[in-house]
């Protein structure tokens, strides 16, 4: 038995984070035991655990997902901790030690904010020299630089992160970082150099694309604390004794890139002065560091028809190119970044006003070169001015994203579906640089709240997002505080105004709830409850001011953004009535607040918001449903929301399901949903016995569909369903990002429904799951793994040539699952080579399924389903489907008295033969159809 994944506040060995409410978690694995019966956590001030500050003793009350540490933490202290677990079979294990180190907490700052006595457009280096004459025990640097900064000591970069101090609402709070510089300092003379760049703080940024959104001056606050072996200390403060000089960076910007002049070597020293930014907004970091997580080599060096030299990284990625050069002095090497080629040539018009360039002026020395204060979203890089032959050995794509552990993986028998999963994952990597952005390449790159909300489920399966979203939710709350509960569409606001909208602003309730269910740590609800409640109260105030109808129909709404069913082709809002969407989210968020209040034992608030939610749902039913259950709106998104959010009147769900199927039939079984409908689309279908339709939508390859982009060579998710047209031409330059993760929300459905790894709200953090794999004959197999807070889950299914089913599951220690085997007979099911009914497993029948209660362990199930997972052609298939297959077409020609002319196939080809037989132009008798069914029934539907 082993204990792994020791984390504090969901971060492994956090240094200098805000740990005001420390929560410890761990995972037990490699054991045949099923449950934790007791545990002990010990915290000490030394690695040897001689100086113990907390000992829980052997306790049955320790929650491995979130143990609240009941001690007051001291500033600038490293705490060591370990855990011992007792299992139900007698196994005992003790972990290796982990640690967390506090920042300054409530210590006052002796350092001062300083700014260089230079023109504000000149990128400075602020520096300080000092001597060390004693043996060092440990040393830390506490730093915040504005806009962005890199700190170097004795010529060595401190830390592995980039783009510090990250991006947040700078006007409301500022983060400082902590660096362990013990091994960087030397005996004798030491030099600190802090390089500053514009970033989002003072560079061109935001929807206005203007400068100085948060400030117009570079600034630095730096406090270095050195503890010596003799017990004394030395503090180096940023103050007016520091100096500054001009750096080699001539310009930098998030959108436009960077110019680095290596020939510039002016050593003139300039004064610095104090600047009054105060320290009241300072807070120990919440942001995970942005790190270089992967390195990619170009897969091809292209010479375009226009004569350009272009690197193809093979993957739309985010970060920058690092390259080697020994070009002659004064040579200018320029890299331009783009997402796509057009007619074989380099292209970047869809990046709008963003230049996305890096220019390097060589000093004649051999060098490895990279930017410092920008990043790019790209697959292709145009190289100009490079000395010598451009080859892949000298160029590396450096992939940047927030330091999150990868936790999920999906694989199926369909390579296109596998690529779709990777596209969503790469979209997450590229847009999770501290803030969940809409896109990483054009002149935007902002924290659009709707994008983050709809993708949060997928994101939290793919990666451990607790700390990432915890920081973003803090930003949400801070922006709300000055807006009477309103949640802006973009957070941090970055000068974009106070607009709000349903689906976007509901980020304030939905992400905290999703994070709680995913990780089982109610600390996120405790932190965000006031924010969650304030958002619902804001809507209710609007509702009350317009007559208390319990509908939200008064404000501008973004609607089902970029849906394809709008009457006006120039409208981005889609065709679903925005008042219906807004009112549905009003209900949904009210329900979440009620549930959160219940968990936090706020009983009166639970009753209040539960009652409010009931009133809203009743109002929606009166406004939008007839007495027979017919929904007044006919859009895919309207039906999907009605089902997913449980809005249909009692006893009328079947009507909505049937009408939804008719809607899709009319739409030729293709989606038309936008940002609001798409995340819930397949989930609502699978939850309501339309799993076949969910798979159809997943596996469609023509526009509009998820796989259309994959067939067009996409390596990330597109902003639009047709961002690139079938001829390879980009569909437009207005709002056309090729790395826009929102539609990647389908991956959550793949984890939860295709593979069946479904968390249960009443037992959050995957302590117990509803294991509901839903196979489909169009895939031969599917498998998924998820490294949850409680441990590793695995789910795999496979369909044999005969259409029989086999499953493999892994349930982690201290967890359990309710397995639902589809289309099964209890007496036929085998588990681990034994008949299920002859084992000790608790099993039962339910409709067409078999239910089995599982505890920790590995399982293999096999059975012959009631109906084989093979599809044969029949007269219930569409005419179009039948004539595409040569064998079935041959049978049609043999039996049918008449075939549809080609020009009719596009009009009615989606109808089945039996439907067509009722039409005057296709007179086919039922006897003929019955004969045809016998012949078609011999032909198995091919799996692509």
TrEMBL record:
Residues 303-401 form the Alpha-L-rhamnosidase concanavalin-like domain. It holds the Pfam family Bac_rhamnosid_C. This is alpha-L-rhamnosidase. Keywords: Hydrolase. It catalyses: Hydrolysis of terminal non-reducing alpha-L-rhamnose residues in alpha-L-rhamnosides. Residues 134-293 form the Bacterial alpha-L-rhamnosidase N-terminal domain. One of its GO terms (biological process) is carbohydrate metabolic process. Residues 756-832 form the Alpha-L-rhamnosidase C-terminal domain.
């Amino acid at each position: 038995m082993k204990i792994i994944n020791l984390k504090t506040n969901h971060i492994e060995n956090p240094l200098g984070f805000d740990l005001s409410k420390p929560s410890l978690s761990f995972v037990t694995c490699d054991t045949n035991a099923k449950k934790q019966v007791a545990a002990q956590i010990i915290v000490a001030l030394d690695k040897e655990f001689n100086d113990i500050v907390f000992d829980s003793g052997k306790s049955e009350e320790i929650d491995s997902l979130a143990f609240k540490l009941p001690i007051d933490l001291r500033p600038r202290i490293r705490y060591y901790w370990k855990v011992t677990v007792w299992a139900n079979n007698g196994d005992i294990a003790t972990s290796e030690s982990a640690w967390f180190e506090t920042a300054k907490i409530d210590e006052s700052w002796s350092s001062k904010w300083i700014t260089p006595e230079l023109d504000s457009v000149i990128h400075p280096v602020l520096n300080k020299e000092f001597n060390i004459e004693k043996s060092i025990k440990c040393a830390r640097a506490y730093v915040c630089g504005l806009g962005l900064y890199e700190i170097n000591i004795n010529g060595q970069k401190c830390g592995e992160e980039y783009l510090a101090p990250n991006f947040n609402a700078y006007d409301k709070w500022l983060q400082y970082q902590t660096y362990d510089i013990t091994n960087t300092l030397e005996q004798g003379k030491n030099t600190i150099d802090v390089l500053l760049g514009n970033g989002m703080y003072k560079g061109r940024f935001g929807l206005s694309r203007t400068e100085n959104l948060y400030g117009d001056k570079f600034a630095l606050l730096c406090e270095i604390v050195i503890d010596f072996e003799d017990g004394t200390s030395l503090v180096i403060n940023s103050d007016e004794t520091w100096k500054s000089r001009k750096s080699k960076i001539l310009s930098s910007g998030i959108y436009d890139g960077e110019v680095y002049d290596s020939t510039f070597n002016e050593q003139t020293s300039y004064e610095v002065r104090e600047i009054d930014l105060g320290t009241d907004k300072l807070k120990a970091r919440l942001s995970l560091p942005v790190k270089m997580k992967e390195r990619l080599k170009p897969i091809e060096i292209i010479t375009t028809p226009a004569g350009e030299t272009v690197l193809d990284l093979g993957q739309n990625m985010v970060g920058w190119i690092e390259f080697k050069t020994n070009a002659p002095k004064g040579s200018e090497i320029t890299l331009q970044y783009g997402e796509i080629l057009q007619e074989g040539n380099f292209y970047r018009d869809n990046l709008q006003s963003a230049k996305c360039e890096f220019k390097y002026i060589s000093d004649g020395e051999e060098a490895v070169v990279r930017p410092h204060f920008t990043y790019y979203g790209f697959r292709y890089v145009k190289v100009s001015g490079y000395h010598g032959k451009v080859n892949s050995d000298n160029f590396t794509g450096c992939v940047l994203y927030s330091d999150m552990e990868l936790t999920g993986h999906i694989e199926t028998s369909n390579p296109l579906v596998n690529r779709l999963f990777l596209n969503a994952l790469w979209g997450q990597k590229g847009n999770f640089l501290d803030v969940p952005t809409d896109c990483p390449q054009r002149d935007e790159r902002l924290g659009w709240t709707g994008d983050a909300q709809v993708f949060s489920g997928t994101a939290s399966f793919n990666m451990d997002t607790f700390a990432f979203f915890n920081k973003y939710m803090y930003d949400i709350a801070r922006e709300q505080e000055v807006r009477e509960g309103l949640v802006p569409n973009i957070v941090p606001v970055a000068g974009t105004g106070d607009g709000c909208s349903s689906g976007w602003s509901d980020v304030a309730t939905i992400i905290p709830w999703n994070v709680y269910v995913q990780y089982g740590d109610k600390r996120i609800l405790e932190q965000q409850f006031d924010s969650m409640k304030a958002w619902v109260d804001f809507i209710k105030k609007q509702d009350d001011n317009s007559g208390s109808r319990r509908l939200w129909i008064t404000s501008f709404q973004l609607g089902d953004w970029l849906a394809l069913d709008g009457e006006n082709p120039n409208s981005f809002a889609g065709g679903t009535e925005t008042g219906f969407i807004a009112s549905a989210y009003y209900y949904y968020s009210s329900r979440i607040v009620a549930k959160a209040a219940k968990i936090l034992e706020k009983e009166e608030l639970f009753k209040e918001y539960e009652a409010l939610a009931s009133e809203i749902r009743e109002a929606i039913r009166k406004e939008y449903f007839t007495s027979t259950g017919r929904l007044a709106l006919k859009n895919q998104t309207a039906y999907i929301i009605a089902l997913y959010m449980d809005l249909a009147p009692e006893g009328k769900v079947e009507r909505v399901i049937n009408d939804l199927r008719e809607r899709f039939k009319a739409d030729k079984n293709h989606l038309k949903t936008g940002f609001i409908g798409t995340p819930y689309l397949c989930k609502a279908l699978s939850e309501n016995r339309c799993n076949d339709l969910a798979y159809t939508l997943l596996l469609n390859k023509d526009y509009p569909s998820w796989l259309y982009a994959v067939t067009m060579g996409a390596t990330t998710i597109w902003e639009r369903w047709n961002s690139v047209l079938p001829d390879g031409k980009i569909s437009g330059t207005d709002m056309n990002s090729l790395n826009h993760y929102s539609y990647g929300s389908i991956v959550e459905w793949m984890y939860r429904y295709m593979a069946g790894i479904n968390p249960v709200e009443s037992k959050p953090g995957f302590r117990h799951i509803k294991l509901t794999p839903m196979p489909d004959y169009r895939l031969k197999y599917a498998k998924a793994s998820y490294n949850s807070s409680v441990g590793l889950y695995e789910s795999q299914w496979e369909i044999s040539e005969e259409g029989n089913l086999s499953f493999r599951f892994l349930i982690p220690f201290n967890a359990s699952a309710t397995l639902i085997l589809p289309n099964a007979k209890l007496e036929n099911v085998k588990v681990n080579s034994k008949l299920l009914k002859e084992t000790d497993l608790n099993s039962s029948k339910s409709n067409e399924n078999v239910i089995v209660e599982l505890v920790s362990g590995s399982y293999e199930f096999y059975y012959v389903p009631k109906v084989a997972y093979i599809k044969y052609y029949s007269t219930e298939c569409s005419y179009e489907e039948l004539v595409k297959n040569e064998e079935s077409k041959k049978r049609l020609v043999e039996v049918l008295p008449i075939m549809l002319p080609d020009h009719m196939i596009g009009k009615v080809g989606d109808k089945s033969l039996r439907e067509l037989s009722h039409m005057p132009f296709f007179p086919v008798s039922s006897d003929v159809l019955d004969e045809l069914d016998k012949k078609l029934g011999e032909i198995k539907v091919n799996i692509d």
